Amino acid sequence: MPVTARRPELSIDQVLALRTAASNLAREFDGTFGPETIERFLHTSYDEFADRAVVINYLPLLAERFARQRLRALAKVEGKAIMGTPVALFLCTHNAGRSQMAMGLFSQLANGRAIAWSGGSEPDTRVNPAAIAVMAERGIDISGEYPKPWTDEVVRAADVVVTMGCGDACPVFPGRRYENWAVADPAGLGVIEVRAIRDDLERRVRGLLAELAVPLD
């Protein structure tokens, strides 16, 4: 997905925060990627959120988190890092409900034995509050998650791509395993309806983990 080239003027605090983020990523990916690649991924990640961020002060943190995920994905795609655990990517339209709940359920049930990522074709500005509430009932906190797009390297790094309602906008790359889940969209629904969607997703996530031969506690 192309990134936007437009960017609001950065404050001094944001500039300093981005420098800190770049230093953090440089230490983590030392020997894997050079400074130019890290800077490019960090700043394009920042641009992904700049036009729709609700809290501007969080932008450098969001950019660092997203850049980290993208760099890990790129390292896998380019054979610079061997990830011994399966990676599942959950995609929907707004990355605010279904894909976030599926990622949370997958991560909890896999307990480190598999990795979950998520993304959306038209990312919203925040995660659905009803989705946050019903996930909290299961002891899963997705309140700190954030809607984000998918990128080519993230899709290519996934072992299985699960799509939910993004239609023709969903990315298709040869060699990836794809599944389409017909799961209701929680947008605009209350907690009772979203709770049923969560339970549907849990059944599907458990089935996927079994297919991936990921043992559950």
Write up what this structure looks like:
The protein has 217 residues and is of the alpha/beta class. It folds into two domains: 7-82, Corynebacterium glutamicum thioredoxin-dependent arsenate reductase, N-terminal domain (Helicase, Ruva Protein, domain 3, Orthogonal Bundle); 84-217, Response regulator (Rossmann fold), CATH 3.40.50.2300. Helices cover 46% and strands 10% of the residues. It has seven helices and four strands. Strands 2-1-3-4 form a four-stranded parallel β-sheet. Helix 4 (98-110) packs across helix 7. The longest helix is centred in the C-terminal third of the chain and has 21 residues, at 191-211. The radius of gyration is 17 Å and the shape is globular. The model is unreliable at 1-5 (pLDDT under 50).
Annotate the secondary structure layout.
Elements: H1 12-28, H2 35-50, H3 59-77, E1 87-92, H4 98-110, E2 115-120, H5 129-136, H6 152-157, E3 160-164, E4 177-180, H7 191-211
Helix pairs in contact: 1-2, 1-3, 2-3, 4-7, 5-7
Protein name: Arsenate reductase ArsC
InterPro entries: Phosphatase-like_N (IPR048716), Ptyr_pPase (IPR023485), Ptyr_pPase_sf (IPR036196)
Keywords: Arsenical resistance
